[in-house]
Amino acid sequence: MHRSDVWRVGLAFLVLGRLALMDATAQNAPAAKAEPPRPSPRNAVVTDVGLRVEAAPEITLTAPNLAARSFAPANLLDTPQLEQVFTLRNAGRVPLILDRFKSSCGCTRVFLAGMEKGESEAEAGGEALGQTLKPEQEMRARVAIDLTALPPGPFQKTVSVYAQGTTRPVALLTLTGTLLPSVTFRPALLDFGQAAPGQARPVLLTVSYDPRLTANGPLPPLFSTNPDVRIAPVRTNPNSPPAPLPAGQRAETFAVTLVRESPLGFISGSIAFQPGLAVVPAVGALQPSALRLHPAFLQATALLTGQVTGDVVAEPPVAAFGNAPLGRASMRQIVLTGLRPEALANFKIASASLWVTARLLDASLPAPGANRPTALALELILSPEAPAGVLQTQVKITLANGQRLLIPITAYVTASPAMP
Questions:
Q1: Which residues contact 372 (CB under 8 A, 6 or more apart)?
Q2: What pLDDT does residue 128 have?
Q3: Dist. CA 12–CA 32, nearest whole Å
Q4: N or C: which end of the chain has fewer CB within 10 A?
Q5: Which tens digits make up the pLDDT trace of 301-335?
C-alpha cells in the first residue's frame, strides 16, 4: 500500500444539550407593558430583550448585545490567564432575570458581581442563576480564560448569556487571541515513510524553547507513547551553521528511531516531555523529580506516522468503529494481503482487549500449492458487553516467520443512537 493511502482515524464527538423553557414573570414591574423578545438584526441567534453590554476602550460592539475582546498574543511564561470584565445593563422597562452564563469550553469561567465597590464575586456555573436586573441596573461579568488548558495557536472563546423565557442567548461575549508557544517541536509530524523492518531511517526532531524554562536546570526528558520508538540527543556539528530560531529561543536536536523488531503496520503515537523525571547533569542519568513540570512543556507534542511493511499488509491499516451503540455487537472487516502465497499460512491472531475478538471469514486454507490465495478477510467484532466510553486497543497477527502485524482499533461506545 502506498504511503498516501495511509489514513488517520479521529473521533469527533458532539455533545448535544437542550435548555429548559421557563415562563418570565415580572414581579413589582412598572405599569408599562413588556415588549416581546425580538431577534437582533446583527445576529439571528441572539435575542434582544433589552440587555446591553456597556462600551469600553478594549471592547468592540457589533450590536448592543454582541461584544468582543481581542487580546494581544500571550505567552504562558508571562501569564497563565487572560480575563476581561464586561458590564451588563438592563435597558428594558421591566426586570430581566438572567438564567445562565454558558461558556464554549471548560477553560473559560465567568464570575459575576454587582456594581457596588468591594462587592464579592460569585462564579456562574451551569446551573440556573435567577439573577434579576431591574431596569437600568448593571452588573459585572468577569470572563477568565485558563491558558494552561489551551494548545498554542489562535483561540476563540464565547460566553452565551440566557434569560428566563428565551431559548436563544440574549447577549454574546466573544474573546479571541493567540497563545504563543514556549516550546516548539519541528517537525510536528514525524513521518518514517514506508520501510521494511529494521530499515526505517531516523527522523530528526528539533526542540526550540524559551530559555526561561531551563533557568533551574536542563530540559526534562522526552518520551514516546509508542514502545518501539527510541529518542536520543544529537550532538551539533560545529562546522554546520545552526538553523535560524525565533528571537531569544534555544534549540536541541534529537534522533527518533524505530527499533529493528518493530511490528508491521501503521506507525502511530506521539512524543512529549516526561513529567516527574529530570536529567542530572553530573551523571547524565534520569532521576525522580519533585519539580512540577511547567504547563508550557505539557503543551508541546509531536505525532508519529508511517508504515512498516513486510510479508503481509492490512487494508485498512486501522480499524475504526466510530460511534458504537452500547449493548450491540459491531463488526469491521480487514483484508490481509500476503506478498507471497506462503505468508498467510500458519499465522496466529491475538486481541489485546477482552471486548474485541477476531476471526477469519473463511478460516480453512487450501492445501499448499500454486492456487493458495494471497488475500484473506479478517472480521473484528466489538462485544456488546463493551463498557461505554473510548476504547483504544489492537489486534496482533504473528506470522510463521516471526513478523508481527499490529492493527490499531478505536471505538467510542455510547448509549446514544449510532451515527450513520
A1: 341, 342, 344, 345, 365, 366
A2: 66
A3: 49
A4: C
A5: 999 999 999 889 899 999 999 999 999 999 999 99
